[in-house]
Structure formats: structure tokens, C-alpha cells
Amino acid sequence: MSQYVKEVNAEEFQELLSGEKPVVCDFWASWCGPCRMLAPVLDKIAAEFSDRAVFVKVNVDEEGELAAAYGVMSIPNVVLIENGTPKASNLGYVPESALREFLIRNL
After folding, report:
1. By residue range, what is the domain housing residue 40?
2. Which of 17, 26, 61, 82 is most buried when burial is the number of CB atoms within 10 A of its CB?
3. pLDDT digits (tens, 9 = 90+) for 61-104
4. Is 35 a catalytic residue?
């Protein structure tokens, strides 16, 4: 885990939603190959955008109810949440340039 992306549980996640910054959440699982491929990309992008958003990871196997609450049916699924409401999501593995563009468009 990087210093910019923190794995959180449902309680910690809810606390972050009341913060001032948008939350970028990577819904993932340890058995998911594309999730493992996305992790270093997200770490790098999170360092770049850490002044504009909080970056977290939620393990769908451990926090199934939270994933269901956000309509996560496939992973990896990066969801941008502003003011407690999902604003945009990016499903599946994407290269660094695509993830950066997703954040530029939506933050």
C-alpha cells in the first residue's frame, strides 16, 4: 500500500465521505488479476492528485455490503464520490494515461 492510497473498511469509508475532498475509491479483491495490475497505476496517480482527492481501496470480499451499496458488480471499479454521491466510475484495468484523463475530467 502506498502512502497515498489507504485500504479502508466501511466505517472509515463513511468518515471520509464527510470530509472536504472528493473520495476516489478502488473497489478490488486480492484474487483479481486486473485489480493487482491497477494498484501501481492508482498509487502513481494518487500521488499526483492527492491535493484534490482522497484515494482509498475497499476489498469487496471483506466489505460486500459497501460494494453493493455503490452498485459494484465487477472489479476493479474506481468510483469518484463527491458530497457522498457517486459522480463517475471507471470499470476494469486502464493504463495510467486513461486513469489520469478520467480524474482530470471528473475532479
Report:
1. 5-106
2. 26
3. 999 999 999 999 999 999 999 998 999 999 999 999 999 999 99
4. yes
